[in-house]
Amino acid sequence: MNPFLQPDYTKTVSQVFASTTLHFMTQSCSLNPICGWQRTHSLEELPSWVPDYSLDQERTATPLVSIDGTENIFNASGSQNKAKIPSTDDVTSSKYNWRELGVTSLCIDSVSLLSKTDSPNSSFGDTEKTWLSTISGANHLVPAVEEVKPALYAISEIIRKYNVFWNTIQDISQAGNSAGHGPQGSELTLISNTHLELGTTHTLALKHKEIPHAKQMNIALLKGRPHVVDAYIYSLFNGKISAERRLTQEELEHILDLDIPTELKETGPQNIQDVTDICRTLIAGMTGRRIAVTKGGYIGALPEETQTGDLVCVLYGCSVPVVLRKLEGVDQSYKFVGECYLHGFMDAEAIAMHRKGLLDAEDITLV
Fold first, then answer.
1. In the chain, at which residue ranges do the beta strands (DSSP E only) sit?
2. What SS3 string covers 59-76?
3. pLDDT number for residue 330
4. Which of 27, 63, 87, 119 is the most exposed place for a label (fewest CB within 10 A)?
């Protein structure tokens, strides 16, 4: 029998969870199984790299790695850099410490600026405003933030429009469910349901007072966005449209230029569905995460539990960058905080920097 799954009732729950995680790692030949899980409220005695499988996965941020066996869409550590997975001989050795996981790490940078954590009931529009204020205050970014603020504000205005649309859809959905019309949670069905009888055309309250000449500015955004603006937009979405599809430049331009409905009854169902899907992607991208800027000016979406001074690293055998926290007074030992999106480091860029001598590979221990 697989030694990782060998029944042993003398083991604690934490030991069983650790063995299960090692089994998943062996199956996938990667470190991805330590990513994508809820980290808050875990068992106190559980090592940081071991997921607490008893927690409600619905309460965690949407995973960046695949947790259902499908192919991963990111490749931060490249295809040739394998994970150091303990062998069955290691696990059965008397010297084996099940709390520790040895890994090879490339440290990209440390976190210098973080957005505050919004309340669980905050809309994605409110969260985006918080993220925008954080980026606007990052004076060490290049180009200077002042130069890109108009473009950042225009992005924020677009997100606000999506948020207004989403809130309206939710209001109509709740009204329809209260009246007994349509299945709950099916926004498109409710909108197209002739029994709703809204009486008058439902109009979204879109205002352009915040950003003058918003339409012209949005068009300008499609023509050569600065890197900071691109990094910010991609971080809002975590660089993906869904678990199976990455966000491309073409899709991003479609999102920025999409006609967001203002009068629902005069809008085709497909357009409503497109906007609704984008809203869901924004929610998935921002919920449970904070926008961050590293000391060197890199931008990304990091776990809520991240602290200033934490390190953003690429681990050999892991498809996405991760956040680690150095343990004081313990050499080469780190706490695993969680997976993250760091713009410009999702496709083995860190590996390329290492080969050029710009980043050092280090053998460390996750505890």
1. 101-114, 289-294, 299-303, 311-315, 322-326, 333-339, 341-342, 361-366
2. HCCCCCCCCCCCCCCCCC
3. 85
4. 119
Rg (CA), the chain: 23
Q: Is residue 314 a contact partner of residue 106, using CB atoms and an 8 Å limit?
A: yes
DSSP string, 23-65: HHHHHHTSSGGGSSS--TT--TTS-TTS--TTS-GGGSPPPSS
Q: Are 366 and 335 in contact (CB under 8 A)?
A: yes
DSSP 208: -
Q: Give the burial class of 220: count Cβ atoms within 10 A of its Cβ; 0-12 exposed, 13-18 middle, 19 or more buried.
A: middle
Q: Which long-range contacts (CB under 8 A, 24 or more apart) does 14-20 make?
A: 14/43, 14/45, 14/46, 14/47, 14/50, 15/98, 17/43, 17/46, 17/50, 17/51, 17/52, 17/53, 18/46, 18/47, 18/50, 18/98, 18/99, 19/91, 19/98, 20/53
Q: Is 341 helix (H, G, I), strand (E, B) or coil?
A: strand
Indicate the DSSP class of residue 346: S
* DSSP symbol at 100: -
Contact (Cβ atoms closer than 8 angstroms) between residue 349 and residue 62: no
CB 353 within 8 Å of CB 359: yes
Q: Quick one: DSSP state of residue 198?
A: -
> What DSSP state is assigned to residue 85?
P
Mean pLDDT, each 10-residue run in order, the chain (367 residues): 86 94 93 91 93 87 86 92 86 86 97 91 94 91 81 94 91 65 46 35 42 48 74 96 92 89 73 91 95 96 97 97 94 95 97 97 96
DSSP state of 331: T
Residues found in the chain: 367
CB 329 within 8 A of CB 264: no
Coil, strand or helix at 13 = helix
Distance CA 38, CA 25 (A): 18
Domain ranges in the chain are 3-112+304-366, 124-293
